[in-house]
Amino acid sequence: MPDESIAVAFDLNAASLISLREALPAWEIELLKGATASSLTYDWNPGEADLLVVQARANMAESLGLCRFLVAWGLWFREEHAAVSGPHPSPQDGVRQAAAPLLVLVPPGQKAFIRAVLEAGAHTCLILPVRPEEIAGMLAHARAGPQRSLFRAGAHGEWPRQPCEPLAWPTASSSLP
To answer: Which of 56, 74, 127, 166 could form a disulfide with 147 if both were Cys (CB 3.0 to 4.6 A apart)?
Structure first.
């Protein structure tokens, strides 16, 4: 289908992949396992991806590096309208966002990692486990504007989950809720 939307997902567990498929039933979903910023070739191209999804791994630094690469790649692709060639592009100081929203799925209790991926340019983080309606809501939110936000469970971790107020990044005095 020429008008089919595409999501490229990195390291999703089975439950997260099911939620992604339920949230985006008409989408093509390309699943990649074990990719890192250094393992993706210089000419790697996710095509016209409409959504990028990264599930944080045990090695948070590796996940953060992948997020930074995806944001930088998207910025370069948007600006150049061509495949990446030569050295990996890198974001400059400040928050920058790629054309395709970057959703990062994060285990509970990882505030420092959440801060880092949002500063790197991710549009939104969802706290695991995720539900289909959270993914659909995140996508609608990301398409509505450039704000970044963190979606989290209620005070005791029970449903329904509520989106936090959009977080303004980066500032020296910012702290996560």
So the answer is: 166
